[in-house]
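User: Protein folding is very new to me. Would you mind checking the protein record under this note? It all follows right here:
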Amino acid sequence: MRQSFLQNRNTILSIRSSLSSFGKGLRSANESSRGIVKTVNEGNVAKRKSIFEKSKLFLKRRQAVLRREQEDLVEATKVSSFVNRSPQRKIAASTKGFLGRIMDFLGTIVVGWILLNLPRIIRGVEALMEKIEAVTKVLQEWYNKVVGWFTNFNATLTQKLQELNLISFEGDKKVIEDETNTSNNALDDIIQDIEDGIDRLKNWTKETFGPKFNTSKTTEPSSFSKGNIGGGSNNRLSPSKFVNKNLGGQPQGVLELIRGAEGGYESMFPSETISGLTEMTIAEVVALQKEKLKDGRESAAVGAYQMLYPDRYVEAAGLTMSSKFTPENQDRLAQAFLAERGLTAEKAAKDPAGFAKGLAQGFAGVPVLEAMQGDVQQVERGQSYYRGVGRNKATVSPEVVEEAIKKYGESFNVEGNKPDEVSTVRRQSPNIAQSPDQNIEVPIPIPATKVAANPPPSSPYGGSDGTVAANQSGGTSLNSFIFTELQYT
């Protein structure tokens, strides 16, 4: 029991000692806190005094800056200030920053340069304006003189053209026409004599050596087998008489015959129908033909007349490659083809047999009207001249051909056209503004040395199936050597 009391007494003594130590610590902390508060108060007082002094200095400096700015504004209103004050003084007195002072310096230099050089600049501008006025005056005088010269030139040219129009060439024209007709008639007589001599030579060989002897592979047709068109071998006219002349008469019937034998306006060999073909230009049609030929077909003949090379008759038809391939223009191309072969209304009237043969040689769908030597074999009346070449065959009857040729020839007799006498050449008046286009008739004689009685064409013909025939005999004129044929299906 006593031992327990002794332990409790020691514990209580320890607690009292700890509390005494804790009290001493609190008193020490309190003293430290009072020291800190005193130090903070003293620092605050010192800082307050420093801030107050700085504020007083800032206010003084600010007032000085404002005063200098006011002085700068007053001096800026005086021009003399830019000259009297040096840049160094301006920069030193400026209240702006570094960049602001640099801009002030540059502005001062620029303004000073302008003020010093402004009179010189004004004098230079005035001199430039005087020079511009002088140049403008010279150009105006030159323009007036040029306009006056062209006006006088146009008036003089118009006067001279009027004087030329008053000059008449009727007398010389008549003499030239008479001489040309005389020369053509003489050439025709020579050619006719040659043909008669050849006929007599043939008859003599037959009489001497018998009917089996024949020096020519081609049997010349003597007349139509049927029909009342007439015209035997003795009435045949020189082919050169009709070459490259106006068709004359009314060729609509012959054109309708050819269309009926060959195809439609939008057809293409062998049996295609090209929708919109008549809306294409001739250049586009030629390009289409070339494209079609790439597939290996025999031909790409197009249109109602199955033309193989329509571009070669564009100029003669009065068209261009940009003209549309319309039915009307196809008819014009076909007429140019007929005219180049000499298949005119006059030939239909005076030499219907020769016209029929030439038509059959130009269009494989048109039959021959009597037995003759065709392109590769003997053909009979109603057959194609190109029978035996590919699939060529006649597609109309010979009676229809005879009737069309008869009407065509009668249209020449009625109208009295003379396409063999002159060839019309278009001439444009030099004064386009005042004179319309005129037609001048120019006689074109045909040299006798270049005319053959029956020259073979050099260009191949197209057959009714689009195939090209070669080495054909016959022909109607010298131009058969140089023109390119149409091809037909």
In short: Residues 16-70 form one domain. The longest helix spans residues 2-76. The CA atoms of residues 289 and 295 lie 11 Å apart.
